[in-house]
Amino acid sequence: MINKELFSTEPDTSKVRVTDSFWKNRMEIVRTKVLPYEWEALNDRIEGASTSHAVENFKIAAELTKKGLVGKNDKGTTKTEGAQAVDTGEGGFKGFVFQDSDIAKWLEAIAYTLTWHKDSDLEKTADEVIDLVCAAQQEDGYLDTFYIINGIDKKWTDLKNNHELYCFGHMLEAAVAYYQATGKDKLLNAMKKYADYIDSMFGPEAEKRHGYPGHEEAELALVKLYNVTKEEKYLNLAKYFIDERGKEPNYFTEECKERGEKIPTIEDLAYHQAHKPVREQEAAIGHAVRAVYLYTAMADVAKLTEDKGLMDACERLWKDVTRRQMYITGSIGSSHLGEAFTFDYDLPNDAVYGETCAAIGLAFFAKRMLGIAPKGEYGDVLEKVLYNGILSGISLDGTRFFYVNPLEVVPYKNHMDARFRHVKTERQKWFGCACCPPNIARITADLGSYISSSNDKAFYTHLPIGADSEATIAGVKVEVSVTGNYPWDGDIEVKINPETPVSFTYGIRIPSWCDSFTAEFNGEKLNASLNDGYLLVNREFKKGDVLKLSLSMETKIIEADSRVHADHGKITVMRGPVVYCLEEADNGRDLYLLSLDADASFKVSKETELGGINALYTTGYREVKKEDDRLYRPAGAIEFEKTKLKFIPYYAWNNRGEGEMTVWVQRKS
C-alpha cells in the first residue's frame, strides 16, 4: 500500500559526492577510460571490435535533413526481422534498429559525470554530439535515424519491433540529465518538441494512435521530463502507455493486420508484456530488460498518481522477479532465447543469459521502489545487483564487457557446443548490439542518486557507500556524511550536520545478510529495533552528531532453494554483499571436481591484485579421478584429497585471462 508519509525523493546529485574508495575508483575509471573508449567504439575506431556505425548514422541523417532529402533514400528498408542488424550499403543505415540509443546512453553517462567532476573535454565532445543529433531532427520534432535514412513515410508502422519510442526515451533521458548537469537546454528543447509530437500522435482520443512502445523505455523517460517541467501532459502520456498496454483490441495485433503480416501469438505478446493489462499481470514474463524497464515506469507513475492498483502490481511483480527468477548475483533473464524470463526457479548456471542491461534494469526498479517506501528487501536487491550482477559486466580497466554474465564457465564447452556459444569466456571489446557498455557507464556515473533519499521528515541511507550528501529537511539544510571500508568490512560512521537543530528521522538499512550489529549515537549505545530492515533514529539532530554502526560480516556458505535444480547439492560463498567464485587461475582446471564442507571456515586476506580485494581461503576437496577407460562402470567409493581453495569476488573474474569459473561448488557434507 502506498504511504504518502514515506514518499521520498532522490537527492540532488550535484549535492552528493561519492568518497567511497571502492566506488570512487570505478567512477573515475568511467570518466577517464570508459567514456573516451566508448566514444572511439561509437566512431568505429577500435581495431578488432564489432562495428557500431551509431555516429555515422546521425551524420547521414543530418545531411539528409539539411538537403531536404529525408524519405528519398533509395537504399533504405524499414523491414526488420526480430533483432537483426541492418546494412543498406554505402550512405545507408547500418547497425541495429535501436542504434541511436547507444549515443543517448553515452551522453547520459557524460551528464552524470559532469555533476561530480567538471570535465571541459567531455563536455565539449558532448556539445558537438548534441549539435549533430539536433541537426538530424525533423521539422515536426521526429528524430530516429533508422526511419530518417530508410523511409520516413514508414514511421510508426511497426511499434512492436522497430524501437522508435525506445530510442526516443533514451535520448530524452540524456536530454534531461544533461540539462540538470549543465543548464544547457538545446537537447532538452529538441526532445520536448519530439515528446510534444508523440503526444499529438498517441493517446486515448479517437483520432490518435492507441499504441505503446514495443520496448519499454519512453514511459520512464517521460516521467523524468515531467519532473523537470511539471507539465502534466508528459506524465499523462507515460501513464497512457502503461494503461493501454495489453488491452483489447491489442495494438500489436492490429498493426500486424495493417501490414498484412502474421498475427502475433499470445507467447509473442507476452514476450512484449502485452498479453494482458499490466495491472492483471501476475508474473514477470518475456524479454527481461523490457519487463523491468516497464516495472520501473509503473512504480514511477504509481508514486506520482497515488495509484494503488498499479502499486499492487509492482509489488506482485517485484516478488516474482526477486524470489523466484533472480540469480544470487542479482542477474535476471535466464534464457538466451529472447533474452527472457522462463519459469519459476529455472536458473541454469552454464546456459544462463543474465544480460547486463537486465541487471541494470532491476537496479532501476529497486531504486524506484525505495523511492516509494524504504523497505530493506528493495535495498538488499539493489546492493546485490550493484556489487555483483552489474560490476561483472565490465573489466577492471573499463575496456572489455560482458553482455551475458555466466555463473559457470568451462571454455572448451563454450567454444565447441552451440548451446553455450552465447556465453563468452572473455569480455569483449564491443558488441554490434552494444546496449550494455553505455548502460554500465551511466549507472556507475549516477551512483550518487542510488545511495540515499529523503523527504520533509526523514533521511534514508539505503547503501552504506561512503558519500557526502546534502538535503533540506523541515526547511533546514542537513549534511550527511557516510564513511567506512564497505564492502570489505562492516564498520560505518555517519556524521549528521544540520545548519540548525532540527527534528527528523534518520534511517539506515541493515542488510539482511547481517546477523547482528551494534550501534552507538554520540558514544552511547543505541538500543533500537528495525523497521522494515531499517534502523531508525528519531530525534532532534544538531551539528556534530555521529552514529556508528558495526555490522557483523562473517563469511557465509549459502544454499539455494531446492526447487532450483541447477544448484541442488551445491553451495556458494558470500561475505557481506559480495558473491564469491572459484577461478582456474587460483584453483586449477576441472573445478567441477572440487567440493566444500557446509561448515568450512575461511581466512580473509586483503590483497592488492584485481584492484584490491578481500580473497577468501579455505580447505576443500578435490575428487580423485579414476584411471579407467570405461565410459560406464559399477559405482564404487569416491576418493577425495584435501586441497586449498581460493575464492575471489565474482565481479573480478576473467581479469587474468581465459579460464574456468564457477560460483556454485559441490557440497561435500
Hey, roughly how much beta strand do the residues contain? 15-25%
C-alpha end-to-end distance:
44 Å
**Shape verdict:** globular
Largest sheet report = 7 strands, antiparallel
Q: Determine the number of helices (DSSP H or I, runs of at least 4 residues).
A: 20
What is the mean predicted local confidence, pLDDT?
Answer: 95
**Helix content percent band:** 25-40%
Residue stretches low in confidence (pLDDT < 50, at least 5 long) are none
Secondary-structure-derived class: alpha+beta
**How is the largest sheet built, in terms of strand order?**
1-7-8-9-15-11-12
Number of strands: 24
Radius of gyration: 25 Å
Taken together, the total number of domains comes to 4
Q: Would you mind describing this structure in some detail?
A:
The protein has 669 residues and is an alpha+beta fold. The protein has four domains: 50-245, no CATH class; 282-446, no CATH class; 454-551, Immunoglobulin-like; 555-667, no CATH class. It contains 20 helices and 24 strands. Strands 1-7-8-9-15-11-12 form a seven-stranded antiparallel beta sheet. The two termini are 44 Å apart. The model has no long low-confidence stretch (mean pLDDT 95).
What attributes does this structure have?
alpha+beta; globular; 669 residues; Immunoglobulin-like; seven-stranded antiparallel beta sheet
In short:
With 669 residues, the protein is α+β, with helices and mostly antiparallel strands.
Outline the fold blueprint:
Layout: E1 16-18, H1 21-42, H2 54-67, E2 86-87, E3 94-95, H3 100-116, H4 120-135, H5 145-150, H6 159-162, H7 164-182, H8 186-201, H9 218-229, H10 232-244, H11 251-259, H12 266-271, H13 288-305, H14 308-324, H15 356-372, H16 376-390, E4 408-409, H17 411-416, H18 436-445, H19 448-451, E5 452-454, E6 458-461, E7 467-473, E8 476-484, E9 491-498, E10 502-509, E11 517-521, E12 524-525, E13 530-531, E14 534-541, E15 545-551, E16 555-558, E17 570-575, E18 578-583, H20 584-587, E19 594-596, E20 603-607, E21 613-623, E22 640-649, E23 661-662, E24 665-667
Parallel strand pairs: 6-10, 19-24
Antiparallel strand pairs: 1-7, 2-3, 4-23, 5-6, 7-8, 8-9, 9-15, 10-14, 11-12, 11-15, 13-14, 16-17, 17-18, 17-24, 18-22, 18-23, 19-21, 20-21, 21-22
